[in-house]
Amino acid sequence: MNPIVAHGPLRVASFVWRRGDGRKSLTIVCKATYELRPDISPLAREQEDIHAEDVHWGGDPRHSLRAPSDFVPFKQRADVLVTGHAYAPEGRAVRSLRAHLAVGALKKVISVYGDRSFLPTGELSEPAEFNKVPLCWERAAGGAGTVNPVGVTVNPFVFNKAWRWAPNIQPPEIFVATARDPFPPAGMGPLAPTWPDRLKKLGRFAASWDHRGWSAHPLPGDVDAGYFNSAPPDQQAETITPDERIELQNLHPAYPRLVTRLDGVVPHAVLRRPNHPDHPLNLRCDTLWIDTDRGICCLTWRGSIALEMAENGEIHVTIDQRRGATTPKAESPQHDSPGAYAPRSGEPVGGAGEPLSAIETMTIDLGFLAAVRSPAVPFIPAAPGAAPSVAAAPPVRELPPPGADATATLAGPLFVEAKALPEGWTESAVAAPLEPEIAKTPPASPEEIAPPSIPAPSEDFATPTPRLPSEPFGLPRPALVGPIASAAPAEPSLPAMIGPIAGAAEPRAPVPPIATAFDPEAFSIEKWAAISAEIDKASRSRAEVLQAHELSDADFGAIDRHWKAALEKEAARGGYSLRFKFDTAYVGALERLRDRPISAREYAQILAASERRQVPAALLQMEMPAAAHMPVVRLWTGKLARDPKLSFEMIQAVAALREGPDDPPPQAS
User: Fold this and answer.
1) Nearest to 136 by CA among 175, 193, 186
2) Which one, 289, 312, 427, 529, has the greatest CB density within 10 A?
3) CA nearest neighbour of 439 among 404, 397, 396, 400
4) In the chain, where are the structural domains located?
């Protein structure tokens, strides 16, 4: 097979995935980076790399996305994304500002405030002055069980105890004075693939979908194509033009108001095969991504072609510059040894209803998935050590290694990347299938931007989402009147010892597990979860529960160790299938034991109790053990994402609780 050939400075890559009927497609991704300047924004001399995986703030997958993966097969609409910081005009500190974004006909405004907090009375404090505020979703309203899982929880139930941080970012049309006022999330950055607004588009596949390995399986036909759009709904456009007009206000470090047009560069892709006429590929521009900190804008095009058609040819990518700005000099490619590695997984989805001929090319449009009628395949990660199914991709001959800059591409599916030709743009093969290396430095965020890690709450009250990051750019939070949390009690001193000290006892060796001939692999994870739930509920003793299931303590110990180790291995590789099976069986067993399912109102009470640190007491009132907290939260997060009716019931339940008494119930002893 022959490579992709890039004629120009733009970044080009490709990857393979499977249509619904299992047939393979090759998707070409082309990215252009512009330097944002007044009037005309030219191509930047340093072109942004193509991201093979999602890029998180600070390189931490628990945080929100800074840049989405470029390796998606298609997008239903065009994404407009903004990341970085909102900047005070002319560097003069302000307490609040409005950040304006306009791209063509798309317009959006958000209100940005300095650090502020809810007082013990529930009232909102005066914001502190700031020079810049990060545009990450951790600075907007949200929290566990909401559309913004990493956001700041605005809790209307607790008005005493400590001061609590309030969100920095909010919609411009609302007025917030107390924690009781509606506080919807607002932001301009990408939504993570595991968040409710995107997961609900997967329908019945939401619980088992693996967003890192989706391309290893045929793409089901009833998946909403909008899942692959990462922009908030109000930042999705029908089209993006190559010379798009952009207007930014308080979104550039040097220009308080910037009005510009992109320097109309258009990539063209052509398949060239022996004894065949040139065959053009349709490339659609479906992503506009702005990094306010670096003052750059990236446009991304993609198009797909049947892999069987491309196997014996070369795909040449050229550019057409519509305006007259200077094109940066093409880089000299660095040569790596050729390698015939296949992409880790993937290929373009296709409908089983129409034939994929040898001359077919496609640009996936809104109705593309409607044609897919093949049986769905769950997207569950492979077992440890299992080799994923892969497909061969065009060989990569010349691929510069990841640079030392902070924008290095994260490791992702194996892909074909084409860099620019040497000066003069003479024709030569410059793309080759090379296994990408793991980025050695966190990508795409300067050190001062990355939100520092936050100490996690105690395990009993842990939630599956991170807390609000502290100030990432060095500006201290305003001092709060009174402590945020009580100081940790000092450890009591040991009493004085009278008389001679006895010799220290030798530490005991750990007691080995009791040997058993029972095979734990023959015992399903669902049955283990159900028995664990019965033991945790403690309606009867552990011995009585095990006797009822005809198990010895040694047998159940072996089962327990086996499945806990399996869950740890799955979590280490980012999987969720076994955890979902456990949670479903565990919670289902508890619901049977208490003779009723968990209601939306009860889940709302659990969330409220979590904020008050009263989860064990709340669960006890619902006839459930404290160990049920995380399985219930994980299961209900998925339920709410998949079921709009249930989400509405949840909203009503929260509203009903908000109408309750102002004072929270006493703390559990």
Assistant:
1) 186
2) 289
3) 404
4) 4-80+194-240+255-434, 85-170, 520-658
Residue found by looking up tokens 């006839």 in the block: 623
Please, which residues bridge with residue 361 across strands? 305
CB 240 within 8 A of CB 78: yes
Nearest to 268 by CA among 51, 79, 12: 12
Residue 538, sorted as left (phi over 0), alpha (psi -120 to 50) or beta, turns out to be left
Cα within 13 Å of Cα(262), Cβ side: 26
Q: What is the value of pTM for the model shown?
A: 0.55
Number of H helices and E strands in the chain, helices first, is 10, 25
Q: 329: closest CA among 123, 38, 632, 42?
A: 42
Cα first-last separation, the chain: 70
- CB distance 260 to 246 below 8 Å: yes
Band (pLDDT 50/70/90 cuts) for residue 483 is very low
**Alpha-carbon gap, residue 398 to 419, rounded angstroms:** 8
The three-state secondary structure class of 178 is: strand
**Positive/negative CA dihedral, 416, 420, 421, 425:** positive
Residue 513, pLDDT score: 53
CA distances from 538 to 73, 186, 531, 627, 668 (A): 50, 44, 11, 11, 20
pLDDT in tens, 636-650: 887 887 777 787 777
Amino acid at 197: D
3-state secondary structure 139-172: HEECCCCCCCCCCECCCCCCCCCCCEECCCEECC
Bigger pLDDT: 439 vs 548: 548
Going 193 to 469 to 483 to 458, the CA torsion angle's sign is positive
